[in-house]
Amino acid sequence: MLANPSGKATEIEQNVKIKLPFGCDVLSVVPAGKSLWVQRVKIKVKLIDGSEKAYFRKAASGYRGYKMMEGAFAAETAIYSAIPEHTPKPLAWGTYKSQPDVHFYICDFVDMLDNVPDPRSWGETIARLHQNSVGKSPCSKFGFHVTTHLANVPVDNTWNKS
After folding, report:
1. What is the pLDDT of residue 2?
2. In the 8-state DSSP scheme, what is residue 146?
3. Most buried of 45, 75, 104, 156 (most Cβ within 10 A)?
């Protein structure tokens, strides 16, 4: 289902719904920023314990959309494992049942800030990302096992020695 600007929509695409926590009720689906390449929404749910939680869902169509969502999930999962305090927790990715050419990625929703981070703190975070990921390459090379994207542009992550 596409986002309802009023926020009153409570229906959601079947394959997205089954990736959300078991037993949750969808409270709203609203647009979450603008993008030329993906449709982005904030999904607010009520969990079975009565608490509320928000998720970010982006979706894109076609083979490129499939590769974008696959890469986003794999990359965010890897980054989350290294620096979870600085990365929205990935939840899932998949393909719409109702539209098999549309693919999605879901993670925890985080309100983003437009301010520039402190350079020292940012540098320390990037250093920690690299330190925490050392030795995790399956072939002792630099790269990644799936293609990632910068917007809709594929990034060459081929394994290499440097």
Report:
1. 45
2. S
3. 104
pLDDT, mean of each 10-residue run, the chain (162 residues)? 46 93 95 91 97 97 96 95 94 97 97 85 89 81 88 90 78
Which run of H or of E encompasses 26? strand 25-31
Report how far residue 88's alpha carbon sits from residue 108's, in angstroms, rounded to the nearest whole number: 5
Specify the residue for token string 């600085």.
86
Write down the residue that tokens 């090379």 correspond to: 141
Note whether 125 and 82 are within 8 A (CB): no
In sequence order, what are the beta bridge partners of 131?
A: none
Token readout for 137 is 């390459």
Phi, psi of 88 (to 5 degrees): -60, 135
Determine what percent of the chain falls in helix, strand and coil, rounding each to the nearest 5.
25, 30, 45
Phi-psi region of 32 (alpha: psi -120 to 50; beta: other; left: phi over 0): beta
The span from the CA of 119 to the CA of 96, in Å, is 40
- At 129 the pLDDT is 87
Give the count of beta carbons closer than 10 Å to the beta carbon of residue 8.
10
- What pLDDT, on a 0 to 100 scale, did the predictor assign at position 13? 95
Q: Give the pLDDT of residue 72.
A: 97
Q: What is the DSSP letter of 59?
A: E
